[in-house]
Design goal:
This protein is mainly beta. The chain has 4 domains: 421 residues, 7 Propeller (Methylamine Dehydrogenase, Chain H), CATH 2.130.10; 37 residues, no CATH class; 470 residues, 7 Propeller (Methylamine Dehydrogenase, Chain H); 62 residues, no CATH class. It has 17 helices and 89 strands. A 6-stranded mixed β-sheet has the order 21-20-25-24-23-22, with no helix packed on it. The chain has a 5-stranded antiparallel β-sheet with strand order 1-47-46-42-43, with helices on one face. Strands 19-18-13-12-44 form a 5-stranded antiparallel β-sheet, with no helix packed on it. The protein is globular, with a radius of gyration of 33 Å.
Amino acid sequence: MSFHVLNRSFRGVFLCLVLSCMSGLSAEKYQVEVTPLKAAGDQGPGFTLMNAVETQVSFRNDLDPRKGAANRVLFNGSGVAVGDWDNDGLPDLFFCGIDSPNHLYRNLGQWKFEKVSIPPSLQNPGAPCRGAVFADLNGDRYLDLIVSTVGMGVRSFFNQGGLAFEDATQKAGTGSEFGATSMALADVDGNGTLDLYVANYRSNDIRDQARVPVRRVRGKLMPSEELSKRIFIHGGQIHEYGEPDILYLNNGSGKMTPVDWTSGAFRENGQALKAAPKDWGLSAMFRDLNGDGHVDLYVCNDYWTPDRIWINDGQGGFDALSGEALNITSLSSMGVDGADLNRDGHVDLFVVDMLSRDPVLRKRQQPAESMVGGIPSLNGPRLQLPYNTLFMGNGKGAFTETSHFAGLEASDWSWCPIFMDADLDGMDDVLISAGYPHDMQDSDTLRLIQSRQHSWDRYSTDAARQKAFTDEMMQHIELYPKLEMPVVAYRGKGNGTFEEVTHLWGTGKKGIHQGFAVGDLDGDGDWDLVLNCLNGSARLFRNDASNDRVVIRLKGSPSNTQAIGSKMVINEGKSNSATRSIVSGGRYLSGGDTEQVFAMLSSKKASTLTVVWPDGTSSFLEDLKRNHRYTVHQPEASDGLSDLVDVPTDQAALIPLFRDASLKLSHTSRSAFSDDFAKQPLLPYALSHHGPGVICMDVNGDTITDILIGGEKGQHPTLHIGKGDVEFETKELDFRLINDSSGMLGIPVPGNRIHLFLAQTGYEAIRQPALMELNLKGQHRSLFSNALTGVGPMVAGPLNGQGSLTVFMGGTYISRQYPLSHPSQLIHQDANGWRIDSVHEDLLRSIQRSRGAVWSDLNGDGFAELIITTEWGLVRVLQNTRGKLEDRTHAWGLGAHTGLWGGVVSGDMDGNGFPDLIVGNWGRNSDWQATGKSPFNMYHGDILKTGVREIIETEYHPQKLITPKRYLSELGAQLPFLFKLAGNNARYSSLTVRELFAHYWESLTALHASTLDTCLFLNSGNGTFRQVLLPKEVQWAPVFGLQVGDFNGDGIEDVVLGQNQSHVREGMPPQNQGRVMILIGKGDGQFNVLNEAESGVEVHGNARGLAVADFNQDARLDFVVTQNEGATKLYLNQSDSKQGVRVRLNHTGVNRHGIGSQLRLVDYDDSRGPLREVQAGNGWYSQNSPVTVLHGKNKARALWVKWPGGKVNTYPLKSDQSEIEAVY
């Protein structure tokens, strides 16, 4: 074993860089103690609820029902602190009582505890006690105790050498008149001392008063003078402010000084706050969210008050995180925890709310909602939604919300989440305390109580009125169902998802679990659970994990003796690492022990520990012994100053793959207002926000790539004429769209001309021509005006091999009739222009809801197949046999994969010379979920015969019965007969779709989706596909535009794709957690996803059309992407790889660009690079430049071309040749 100390600044440097810099260092002076752990049991993963008689922990947290009825804030319960207050090596317990005395228990070992006598001011401070944390405030290496109260702020008790506690509240200066809740401690200003943040709620709730005085001023209802700073009136309802939180700075001796909110220490948009936020604070936690070495702050707030995320500037000041960096939060945010879930070195956050795990119970409850939504001055810059939120950090202080993908969106009425590797398998799990005395969201009870409302004017005195009000409140509370819940347990699966294991792990006993903390109570090196239960006994759960582990305890400097804010990383080989951070407090009303537990997975790989101390210095420990506890001391400033290796404080500047050149275009898409949900109220998402698409090609014959961008209803398409050096002249075409544009095509025709085709959806202005032919002057004419009234995707390909092109036009949705769609069509180019195909009419009529299409020669016979993606259907393969199309979807192995398929591209992702398919889908980050065994089902029909189709989204009852997904209030508003049929929410919640719609069953049609994953279908070359799911990041949002190209020049095809759908129905989370993403191919169908720092691409809007081209003619592929209601973005490739070969085809026939040709580079060893196809239309309403760029793994000697019809030519390349024109 060896131990190294580094005394250089480490802030902002990745831990993996530390490890590489420190290898081979000689041992320096250090202090570390190593002791074996108590042997773990062999029960396997899970927990055992310990018997209170045996542990002698007899604490109960009972609340007098009348006190709760008179002051509902007391129902939020109390917490627990875990820490070694007597320094005997065993963590002790302190329980807070909301209506009972506080208890301190000394840990005697072997699961025995003794109650310790404590001073009266600690046992009962004179107010209900909520939260507690053990922390060394004055640097004497004994843990002090801070206790939050209802109405007296924080009470501070200094530890007198492990013998007793002294009430030091006045000395510490932490008392206040506020209703304090949770507390978090860290060094926020860099002076080495522990500072304190106190979240404040309220001491009472004005809704528990029988009468709230208001006044009318100039006809407007206003608060009374005495309540003007406590309440406000919005929408005819009274709303109450919470109380301002307090940040205390510690002078090192435990004396705390509050920071003025308006002093400039807290800033929004760079400006000092003008007033203290008055929020309903429940929890707060310090963690370094952006990787700069300074602790940031996440504050969970209840009701309509927004969560606050404060980014530390390194000097004790905080800037509010922008709404763009984190755009969704939980509505009723209860508790928060953080961990590095995906092992990328960045902190991820998890915030819990109150959504039920049980779909039956969920439909009985009235979902919480912000009553002041849409008023940023009150509820902040973020959308607040009533479910748990999981934020995956990107290291730059920005986050992606992925709770539905992870399976963590619901954990019932939750309070405190704690990440821990409970089963010691190397993956973080999460346990959540949950429960409440009654289900105050029960819809039927709420309606019953509302029906019993009456006047309170008959009471002659305020006291009599208040007594009667409280009496009735007690009666009303008892009407609600009980809501005792388990400690909810989710096991991390290591792929970004979790599975519930509550009962499997033994935490299923129900109760009102609120305060929650962890510590190794029995010395075996795993975290045990301690819970404070309202109206019940405290609960202790023994962790029964049996896998190998190692425990790390840090001893910090005198001013921060627990080394709060430190980070540590344990590595076992190159593939397995785990990161932990030391926090103090931060749990809901609670604080746990600070030592950290790591799984030791491999007995054959040496393990190392890196510690980054709060001051930025670092320590390194090698050859860790499994099943041992390491106590590591922070080195003093004088330790190991000689012969040290400097850790670099700056990394080599990372040059991203792309640079933003969007200002060259200056184009923004703007949508006209359209209320799709007024037309068809049960629509799942808006249908009028699907564009615009984009074309990249030389339309004027000057060899410079131009860009044509469609538009929304009421806009004009725009043509951006390339002028060289990535400069453009923008021209708005003289054609105003009467519907949103959809597919677009540029097709070469004789005379060195380009025909531009633009389709329209036909969704808003119905029965209007959907296909327009344009020229560069903006002149236009409609084609097939009677036959084509709604077109979506549009792609052209050589149906007959050589010769003219055939255009497929997919029918899009019919207004008010979703999911019914217009018919799809083929049109042929001939000497007289264009004509509608009649041969394939019946085949195309069978294809509904087409969303994307591409022509691709899947079997290499020279005749391109037509691939059509459908929503609520299959990826259809129409195999081309010398100009005759036949549906061979099932033969190709695609018959089992129904989905909400969208854009589609082909590309040779495994290098076998056959085109594979990449197909966009809805993703798995919504409350729509699907598997092959449990598909997502939707029913539709014109039930009421009004000409508007009703949509019935469904979910599975726990017994796998299919039930409606939406609430009775939502469905009943459109189908009123449901109110009478169901009677109430309780009965509705358990009725199946078949039972509810038995009378209308014949008028309903069922649709199914067996997968919602965006997929790669690998082409084996023998006529079959194999499904491969794209990386998890791709599944976090719906995919629209996508393209294939070798962007990093390594001879392997990559993918660029665009995501997001914000325009969804009420009650569905906006699907806006995606971005424009670069996937670097590995050559076997697998990918590495670049983060934004690596890719240089930052697009977070509703990405739509996407096309690739080499705009600056540097033999590297660039791309352009449109956004619905956003700026079009142009990105130029600045890869440092070798230049590729620009390939331009010149076919002497009608198909001048060689559309349908296949290209490969041939190396000097005769190996071939991946196959690329030249296509007219693919992805999402878009078309790439016909001039493409190929890269080989090695130097290419020739270009291989298979022309439409199957003719193959090889064209030699010189060693330094960067462009070739292949003529046929």
